[in-house]
Amino acid sequence: MQTQEQVVPIRTPETHLEGDDVFTVIRPDGTTDPNTDPRLPQHMVLDLYKAMVRTRIVDLQLERLQRQGRIGFHIGSLGEEACIIGSAAAMRPNDWIFPCYREFGALLWRGFPLQTYVDNMYGNDEDPVKGRQMPDHYTARAYRFGSVSSPIGTQITQAVGMGWAARHKGKDEVVSVYFGDGATSSNEFHTGLNFGGVMNAPVVFLCRNNRWAISVPTEMQTKAAKLSDKAIAYGIKGVRVDGNDVLATWKIVREAVERASRGEGPTLVEMLTYRIGGHSTSDDPRAYRVQNEVERWRGTDPIVRLRRHLETKNAWDDAREEEFKTETEAQLKTCIGLSEAKKKPELSSIFTEVFSKQPWHLKEQQAECENGPRAKPAH
Amino acid sequence: MPEMNLVQSINSALRHEMKANDDVIVLGEDVGKVGGVFRVTKGLFDEFGADRVIDTPLAEGGIIGTAIGMALYGLRPVPEIQFSDFIFPAFDQIVSEAAKFRYRSGGEYTCPMVIRTPVGGGIRGGHYHSQSPESLFIHTAGLKVVCPSNPYDAKGLLLSAIRDDDPIMFFEPKRVYRAVKMEVPEEEFTVPIGKAKVVKEGKDVTVIAWGAMLFEALASAQEVAENDGVDAEVIDLRTLWPVDIDTIVESVKKTGRVVIVHEAPKACGFGAELLSLISEKAFLHLEAPPKRVTGWDTPFPYTLEMEYLPLQHRITPALIETVRF
């Protein structure tokens, strides 16, 4: 057994975001830089804050449910709330979002019902994808939101094709696509940025650089000092933003959306953040990283940072925080209770929607399954 | 009615459907100005422009990935993979994405697209221009797999495929591209997906083939008819998956004997699945052990490719052996 003391730190983690090319708005004291502040209306900043807090509440609760064996899996976004919510909020209503798998916060921001999301976590018969996928593999076309698959990077070229298609049809619709720092090593990252550049597609490539791809740190993923530099090779714009600063993220992503909308092509946005939790509930990061690295990053917590900003405006306080948390936790608890009481999907759901019309072999196999030992499914 | 070879009839189908439906987009390596390395898309660039016939960068994963994005949005992309030997960089996009979108999204997203790609050997192309990877895609839930043998079927099947709401692998037997000419209507017509064709009726043995090997099977059937008085029934599958099981079972019940011919290697080739299905559905009708005449379980050789392929000289003895068992 490896003890924590035996873990050799393989790098000196940066706990702050250095470099004059990292775009930041919120200063350490909570005030904003007047030169960069997007000056969002206060009600919107409050909405961003609440969405970030809700994301964290849901994350923590789902992790508990997994530990209790009540759901099979969760892949969370602890510490990455600002870059996820800020970027999702910067997309206009008709724009599209292609998720990686860590962006349920963006999904809920788009208005996807919390109850439906929790149904997806349980894979029950009201899960829109009928329990066919692991938890956190959601789809939400009505919300102009893609469909999660597990292979890394595949969504990147798809986003390029969709953006190209929208423009081909004369629509002003920009497509954003999320992926992590690890995905910048994947085939589809390079292909996607290259095709996106050549096709001048209205796409925003959103890289959540959370410093860890499961157990591999960013500096072992690439020798490049900045992931945003990879844009240069594809002739597209690359920018770095402090991904723990929701206002900075919003502004940089909105500018990228506007450029894409004007026909000026794609942008690679490197959002610098940190994965406070494990890769997923199946991962134990104590095996590969030292705890004090995590603790130092907690000092840059995007939620604490935005709250400090709100307090400088007298827009938030302990009482409102308590009220919002209590209300959100109660709402989530209700959803969980309802989801747990729902049935499993019907056996037939295994065999439908493989094709537009069910072919003979699937008819045969469905009949075999339904008339076999599971003829009366135990719900 | 004009005479067309396979290249011309596929070109005719693409041109028709691009005229009829603005959402049909052709994309791939060299498909634009030059009209593809086999000239299948010749003239489409001039007629429909660079926005409908896209010369893409050289990356198969990108061709299929962007085509998927187009399909998700509602277009009808027809991507070309220059040789099916080069399809593997796109394998993840085809197998994990295009084939699964409908299922994994609960029907919210679909991927109607036709992936055209030349298949098969006999053109002195060596290992990397000759393989037949169809069974990898048949094995993948969510894909339809089509392989016409002649210009008429190719046009009719391609028009059906572009109008179909599922992702379809459209394998074009490159050895047939310019080798066969026949009358093909200029106007539109369709050949249904999922229907095989009995191209020669017979009572003694069923031969199942597709693509370029159909002509070898027919040649053998003629040879054994003339020399040995054997009356073989020859089925051109046309659609490999979902396979037309009714036509196969009906034929095997009649003849009691079956020989399957394909270019792909024997182990886990589509012949293996066909024989399993025949065993499940017509076991007691079999009068002789079924036979497979296939490519060997080796890489595809260059100099000796005609010894690798399951040509007439190998099919004929298999027919005789099966009938005389």
Q: Please report which band the strand proportion of chain A falls in: under 5%, 5-15%, 15-25%, 25-35%, 35-45% or over 45%.
A: 5-15%
- Characterize the overall form of chain B: globular
Strand order of the largest sheet of chain A: 1-9-10-6-5-2
Count the domains of chain B: 2
Summarize the main sheet of chain B: 5 strands, mixed
CATH class division of the largest domain in chain B: Alpha Beta
Helix count of chain B equals 12
Mean pLDDT of chain A: 93
Number of domains of chain A: 2
Distance between the termini of chain A: 41 Å
Q: How can the largest sheet of chain A be summarized?
A: 6 strands, parallel
| Average residue-wise pLDDT of chain B | 98
Topology:
The complex is a heterodimer of chains A (379) and B (325).
Chain A: E1 22-23, H1 42-67, H2 81-90, E2 96-98, H3 104-109, H4 114-122, E3 139-140, E4 145-147, H5 154-168, E5 175-180, H6 187-198, E6 203-209, E7 212-213, E8 216-217, H7 218-221, H8 230-233, E9 237-242, H9 246-261, E10 267-272, H10 291-298, H11 302-312, H12 318-341, H13 360-370
Parallel strand pairs in A: 1-9, 2-5, 5-6, 6-10, 9-10
Antiparallel strand pairs in A: 3-4, 7-8
Helix pairs in contact in A: 1-2, 1-11, 1-12, 2-9, 4-12, 5-6
Chain B: E1 3-4, H1 6-20, E2 24-28, H2 44-48, E3 53-55, H3 60-73, E4 76-80, H4 91-98, H5 101-104, E5 114-119, H6 134-138, E6 144-146, H7 151-163, E7 168-173, E8 182-183, E9 197-200, E10 205-209, H8 213-228, E11 232-236, E12 239-241, H9 245-255, E13 258-265, H10 270-282, E14 291-295, H11 305-308, H12 312-324
Parallel strand pairs in B: 2-3, 2-4, 5-7, 6-7, 10-11, 10-13, 13-14
Antiparallel strand pairs in B: 1-8, 6-12, 9-11
Helix pairs in contact in B: 1-7, 3-4, 8-12, 9-10
